[in-house]
TrEMBL record, chain A:
Residues 26-88 form the Glutaredoxin domain. This is thioredoxin-disulfide reductase (NADPH). It comes from Gymnodraco acuticeps. PANTHER family: GLUTATHIONE REDUCTASE, THIOREDOXIN-DISULFIDE REDUCTASE. Residues 116-475 form the FAD/NAD(P)-binding domain. CDD domains: GRX_GRXh_1_2_like. The lineage of its organism: Eukaryota, Metazoa, Chordata, Craniata, Vertebrata.
Automatic annotation (TrEMBL), chain B:
CDD domains: TRX_family. This is Thioredoxin, mitochondrial. One of its GO terms (cellular component) is mitochondrion. Belongs to the thioredoxin family. Residues 100-213 form the Thioredoxin domain.
Length: 622, 214
């Protein structure tokens, strides 16, 4: 990079340097090869001080930095040390300051001036776990949490996405749908159900697995009852979180936080009252919110998962846009309630997941009456009639041709992904780097952002899992490392998870697609099998739909690097195998494990057929 | 998990009582430690501690605002047990029947905000039962009407303040509510008794009688 001539460039550089000085308790401008710099950095390491060292020889415009530092401080040489915004000087100055105690004074001056040791922005799983742990370790901690209402006006309480508009209501509604299936099955097991009742209008007869319309079991589902019961349970959870914060001495304020300085936030409550708080350290745990399409009518007429779980009326005939796990889970349980559900898919199902498994889960949904519109994208949504629910017209176009289609639905649910809430919290005032495309925050393996006193956990992290237990683990371990002398870092490898599609899909480790990319097909052995859960046999449904697959690394003792299960209770099945994989389970060890009979999980102890052999995998008897 | 925050049936009360007792005592201990009290964990000292803690809390929140001049519940002026001069307000010319109707109405009321709580509970001349409840709490829906009935039976010797903990979270947090329903009895600004969970009509009646000192 050439020397900067113009004033704008100079001013930019100056403010960049000032930001570094302002946002780091200890800032060292250094050169990687300079022995004096090493000496200074070693001193800070010895003092266990967090410092940010910028190696001017390793960055492109290092000379410009050096020139600007000369202009700002009258010192051109490195190291050039700043403590709490005060210019200390070079190596000798710093060592001298350490000797005569002025260094300590400089360090203390600022630390004591902060209102809090730690402010956590965001009261979701990660933020709450981290703040409670920090407070338990004797630190003064605060949580700032605020739910910006959806375009439809939906809002909720403390606890974040998982508790309010994610895992919890999702699984309860999935359970609702499965109970519907259980009622159907029950008849085959001898339960006699009074069939005089009328099925509700919005519910259609269920299709059997062959696609023909079977006898209607006239049981009705009441949306309001389910929604109220789910909301009540969530209400109790919200309160529980609030009490836990009080009991753990975490100061909680229900206000929207925005950085205005590297160590200072502005908190605006729902009445618009602004309060300012400072802290030594910050943790950003603001999570994500559903993305809209940016087409006419999307925010006015469509809903997202943020609205669905507390929708005041049954959604009726529903179009789900997207094929994310949120889309398939919501589409799945709505169909399970007996609603007419269509899923509009742009390209593939469950991006990032094992594609074979994703397609099998999708096929199962299709066989159970969920319609898929593949390779279409919506272009506009119009309201035909207002109401609860109203009628909407959706226009979509093919991704492959000029074909345009129209459809009429009561509800349109957008589930095309989620965006990190990092653009409106004043991160520019702190210098925290954000991926400009995704809004995600890159962090070190210790969840530290590029600004040393600011950390991040949860869904906003770049390249990490968007899962509640991961955020909780990361938050808790982070607090222990910051305040409890902990060393353990969050392990993001081999994280088990489950997608609650009607036929549940649990996995841990690599997808087959990714494993092939990383290791090459020739170095992998894939063992797989279809199976028929015992509980499906009597009702005679879903024969050879459930599927188990493991991916083994031939170069490493046939170690299991990918685990995939499509079947009932996938979460319960996958959890234990997750532990096995953490312990480095190999195919041989699985083979030596005694199965529990009769279960679904036992299939993993008897996997024999390899995918490469092309052998028969349909199940047969005991 | 939910049950932890929502005390329900009597049969399982023992376990829950223990739980809420533990939580409640922990909260109190924290409150006391913060205010410089030492904590002796015994049931005997619990009542004393709760009294002291709340007196302190209450003092802290005792502010004189213009709203303090607002009239007290109409019922007070006709209550026989009441001798206060601070309760005037209702014009004597109004008919007695109107006042009686108000009396019935005012035996229990919903708390609107912190100031309202200050006026109608803390500064109340009568003892007040504060029913901390939540929309999502099933047992609260059973206890509420029962308690209302028990209070009504006392013909204006006690009132009942209903506090929705989600609308008035700060109040609930301040009074150490962990599980709902929680009922606390306040007289002269001090917490004099409390219980968590559900009670039957007889138990409620004796609780209320104790509060009004029968």
């Amino acid at each position: 990079m050439p020397p900067i001539e113009n004033d704008t460039g100079k001013n930019d550089l100056k403010s960049q340097i000032q930001l570094l000085i302002d946002s780091n308790q200890v800032m060292v401008f250094s050169k990687s090869y300079c022995p004096y710099c090493v000496k200074v950095k070693d001193l800070f390491k010895e003092l266990k001080l967090e410092f940010n060292a910028m190696e001017l020889d390793l960055i492109e415009d290092g000379t410009n930095y050096q020139d600007m530092l000369l202009e700002m401080t009258g010192q051109k040489s490195v190291p050039n040390v700043f403590i709490n915004k005060t210019h200390v000087g070079g190596c000798d100055n710093t060592l001298q300051a350490h000797k005569d105690g002025s260094l300590q004074q400089l360090l203390c001056a600022e630390t004591e001036a902060y209102d809090y040791d730690l402010i956590v922005i965001g009261g979701g799983s990660g933020g709450l776990a981290c703040s409670k742990e920090a407070a338990a370790l004797g630190k003064k901690a605060m949580v700032l949490d605020y739910v910006v209402p959806t375009p439809k006006g939906t809002t909720w309480g403390l606890g974040g996405t998982c508790v309010n508009v994610g895992c919890i209501p999702k699984k309860l509604m999935h359970q609702t749908a499965m109970l519907g299936t259980a009622i159907q099955d029950a008849r085959k097991f001898g339960w006699e159900i009074d069939e005089k009742g009328e099925a509700s209008e919005q519910q259609r007869p269920r299709r059997s697995r062959r696609g023909d319309i079977g006898p209607v079991c006239r049981v009705k589902h009441n949306w309001d009852t389910m929604k109220d019961a789910v909301s009540n349970y969530i209400g109790s959870l919200n309160w529980g979180y609030r009490v836990a914060l009080r009991d753990k001495n975490v100061n909680y304020v229900n206000a929207y936080a925005e950085f205005i300085e590297p160590h200072k936030v502005k908190a605006t409550n729902k009445r618009g009252k602004e309060t300012f708080y400072t802290a030594e350290k910050f943790i950003i745990a603001t999570g994500e919110r559903p993305r809209y399409l940016g087409i006419p009518g999307d925010k006015e007429f469509c809903i997202t998962s943020d609205d669905l779980f507390s929708l005041p009326h049954c959604p009726g005939k529903t179009l789900v846009i997207g094929a994310s796990y949120v889309a398939l889970e919501c589409g799945g349980f709505l169909a399970g309630l007996g609603l007419d559900v269509t899923v509009m898919v742009r390209s593939i199902l469950l991006r990032g997941f094992d594609q074979e498994m994703a397609n099998r889960a999708g096929e199962h949904m299709e066989e159970h009456g969920v319609k898929f519109l593949r390779k279409y994208v919506p272009i506009k949504v119009e309201e035909l009639e207002a109401g609860s629910p109203g009628r909407l017209k959706v226009t979509a176009k093919s991704t492959e041709s000029d074909e345009v289609i129209e459809g009429e639905y009561n509800t349109v649910l957008i589930a095309v992904g989620r965006d990190a809430c990092t653009d409106k919290i004043g991160l520019d005032k702190t210098g925290v780097k954000v991926n400009p495309k995704t809004g995600k925050v890159p962090v070190s393996d210790e969840e530290q952002t590029n600004v040393p006193h600011i950390y991040a956990v949860g869904d906003i992290l770049e390249g990490k899992w968007e899962l509640t237990p991961v955020a909780i683990q990361a938050g808790r371990l982070l607090a222990r490392r910051l305040y409890g002398g902990g060393k353990l870092k969050c392990d993001y490898i081999n994280v088990p998870t489950t997608v609650f599609t009607p036929l549940e899909y649990g996995c841990c480790g690599l997808s087959e697609d990714r494993a092939i990319e990383l290791y090459g097909q020739e170095n992998l052995e894939v063992f797989h099998s279809l199976f028929w859960p015992l509980e499906f046999t009597v009702p005679n449904r879903d024969n050879n739909k459930c599927y188990a697959k493991i991916i083994c690394n031939k170069l490493d003792n046939d170690r299991v690097i990918g685990f995939h299960y499509l079947g009932p209770n996938a979460g319960e099945v996958t959890q234990g195998f997750g532990t096995a994989m953490k312990c480095g389970a190999t195919k041989e060890q699985l083979d030596n494990t005694i199965g529990i009979h009769p279960t679904c999980a036992e299939i993993f102890t008897t996997l024999e057929v390899t995918k490469s052999s092309g052998g028969e995998i349909t199940a047969s008897g005991c | 998990m939910s049950m932890r925050w929502c005390s329900s049936t009597q049969t399982k009360n023992l376990e829950r009582w223990t739980l809420s007792w533990r939580t409640a005592s922990k909260v109190l201990r924290n409150a006391l430690l913060r205010t410089g009290f030492t904590w002796h964990f015994s049931k005997q000292s619990f009542l004393l501690s709760i009294l002291m803690a709340h007196r302190l809390l209450v003092r802290r929140f005792w502010t004189l605002s213009s709203k303090d001049l607002r009239c007290l519940p109409v019922s007070s002026s006709f209550s026989t047990s009441l001798q206060s001069s601070r309760v005037p307000v209702l014009s004597r010319s109004r008919s007695r029947s109107l006042a009686l109707a108000s009396l019935r109405q005012a035996a229990s009321f919903n708390i609107q905000d912190h100031d309202d709580f200050d006026v109608r509970v803390i500064k109340s001349e009568l003892p007040v039962l504060v029913d901390f409840h939540a929309q999502w709490c099933g047992p609260c829906k059973i206890l509420g009407p029962r308690l209302e009935k028990a209070v009504a039976k006392q013909n204006g010797k006690v009132t009942m303040a209903k506090v929705d903990i989600d609308d008035h979270t700060d109040l609930a947090i301040e009074y150490g509510v962990s599980a709902v329903p929680t009922v606390i009895a306040i007289r002269g600004g001090d917490v004099i008794d409390h219980f968590v969970g559900i009670k039957d009509d007889d138990e409620l009646e004796s609780f209320v009688s104790k509060i009004i000192g029968k």
